[in-house]
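[Structure tokenization] protein backbone as discrete codes
[Encoding] learned vocabulary of local backbone shapes
[Protein] chain in single-letter code, fold in tokens
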Amino acid sequence: MARRKIDRTFAPGGAPAERKAAFSFPAIGSRIRFYREKAGKEQKQLAAEIGVTGNAVSNWENGRSRPDLALIPALCRALDISFGDLFGTEVSAPLRTAAENRLLEQYRRLTPGHQAALEQLAEALLGAQAEEKTPNIRRLIHFGKSLSAGPGDPTEFDEQGTPLYLYATRQTEKADCVFTVNGDSMEPAFHNGDAVLISRIPDAPALQYGEVGAFIAGNETYIKVYEKDGLHSLNPAYAPMRFGEGTDVYLIGRVVGVLDPQDIAAEADTVRFPAQQPAALSV
């Protein structure tokens, strides 16, 4: 019978030696032994701290196996070393600031439980930081039902609106509800079909003469210029609206401006204007 050929290689110095097995990990094993002995711990003690058997630690140190990646954090904590210490890839000191080195040293001195708490805090802070970078979304009310001047205060009609989500801008920050313009008496500033942003009263300061507001008179809602003698249109073709005694006129709020469609947070399902006829501000 033919003799099986032994695969050999040559060690330094020219002496023949059998090739080491492919699963040998002497580098990391020697580091584990070095730092374990430096910490004054036996193999069994280290094994108990990280939840493995003493034979597992022995196999690591002798290069027969390598620690599972999931055990690396616990191993480093037990040996009071960094990942770089264990793998021989420690970041050079100049790449870390004095504050970073101080935090790392403090972290290593914490108990495992306190280290875990600090890691959770860091994750929470990173999450909050990420949220700060996302666009701020405002929730306004878009009124999509008819308004009526029934008993009591007719401006209390929030339940008749639907949520409208907008990106926060200097203009949308001033408003808290939206109406749709119906008619051309407020042209050229406000056109038929425009969605206008309104700052509600009494939350907003009192309306001054010459300012544009949203009003309820009778069973109608209007967008008009508030003047001493009545409600005026911007379109000269329309006469001012004047009301005698006994006619109740309610101020909904100040008109902030026309809503820019680009300010609508389009990814939200609820930002689309309702299919039904919205509550229009007559002009």
Notes: Residues 112-132 form the longest helix (21 residues). The helical segments are 26-38, 43-50, 54-61, 72-79, 83-87, 98-109, 112-132. Residues 195 and 261 are 9 Å apart (CA to CA).
